[in-house]
Amino acid sequence: MNNLKTMCVDKRSILIASIIGDGEITKIYPRSRRINNSYREHFSVKQLEYRIWKTKQLPEYFYLTKKSMCLRSKSIQLFTTLFPFFYGDDGEKHIPIDLLMFCSSFYFLLVLYLDDGSLILSKRINDKSKKIYLMPAISFYLQCYKKEELELLRQFISEQFKFELKLNKRKDGKGYILKMTKTKDVYNFLNEIKSKISNCDSMRYKFDWQYRFNVEKEKLQFDYPDYTVIESDSKRFSKYTEKEEIDIVRLKLEGKTDKAIAEYLNRTYWSVVYKIRELRKRGCFHNSLS
Q1: pLDDT at 278
Q2: What is the C-alpha to C-alpha distance for residues 124 and 230, in angstroms, rounded to an integer?
Q3: Cβ neighbours around 108 below 10 Å, total
């Protein structure tokens, strides 16, 4: 454990996230000549550039065997020490809750995401206005871990990095993944990753929002040539300000439609509809008339 404590925070965050993600600590089988465990991480040729980046971050531990497309380490005491934190008597891999305290660097989230995460784009089509809104979300496909462990990881990420994740049900694995759906959080998260690993072009589809948006926009404009593709603005989903509430009441009293008010405020149509209902219940329109 001393090796882990003396390691710089960026390196140990990358290491622990890698083991949680795509990596594994190899087992020592009976009659093996090895006395220590080692690290192993298989990958596809498309992600070679990212694995080269990892070896540059931890050159004292990691090396590549390109023929077998594997990132490895030598058998050393560090991985023997770490093994019981990740693997229980059941032989299954677990999130090392007791080690998360060592992962205060954002590189922990970066590696966890690039190993097991995806940038998901959902769309909302408004046929009347001929507009298509693209909204981003982040998924961490960690369904190999139990719900209770993911919940503790979710709490840690919220407290340490101030990003809010939710548990989402899945039909495979142990039934749950972690998902980031707040648009503002997603943009901030992707910008932070891009600032740290922008030269890794093969992974742009995961962290470069503008790149992904343009790719999806081109596809949609082929299928919907008369529509305008718009990227989601976090403001469209944030809480309403006092000024916005005053503007809604004023515009509604002037006879503006809900759609016109939504466009004026750069908000979603249904968000404005619900907000008007709320303002009516609060008596805001009655107070304005009196």
Answers
A1: 87
A2: 10
A3: 26
Residue 258 burial by Cβ neighbours in a 10 Å radius (0-12, 13-18, 19+): middle
How far apart CA 232 and CA 242 sit, in angstroms, is: 22
Backbone dihedral angles phi then psi of residue 207, each to the nearest 5 degrees: -120, -15
Q: Assign domain 239-289 to its CATH architecture.
A: Orthogonal Bundle (1.10)
- Torsion angle, CA of 158/8/18/146, rounded to 10 degrees? -40
Q: Estimate to the nearest angstrom the gap between the alpha carbon of 164 and the chain centroid.
A: 10
CA distance 276 to 248: 7
Do 106-233 and 1-96 fall under one CATH topology? yes
pLDDT score for 238: 65
Average pLDDT across each block of 10 residues of the chain; the chain has 290 residues. List them in order. 82 97 92 90 93 96 91 95 93 94 96 97 89 93 97 97 95 96 90 90 92 93 92 66 90 91 80 86 72
26 touches 40 (CB < 8 A):
yes
At residue 235, the pLDDT reads: 56
In contact, 113 and 193? CB cutoff 8 Å:
yes
Q: Where are the domains of the chain?
A: 1-96, 106-233, 239-289
Provide the residue type at 52 as one letter.
I
Q: What is the pLDDT of residue 290?
A: 47
The answer to whether domain 1-96 has CATH 3.10.28 is yes
| DSSP-based helix, strand, coil % in the chain, nearest 5 | 50, 15, 30
Q: Of 96, 106, 280, which is closest to residue 192 (Cα–Cα)?
A: 106
Q: Domain 106-233 falls in which CATH fold?
A: Endonuclease I-creI (3.10.28)
Closest CA to 115 of 159, 51, 70, 204: 51
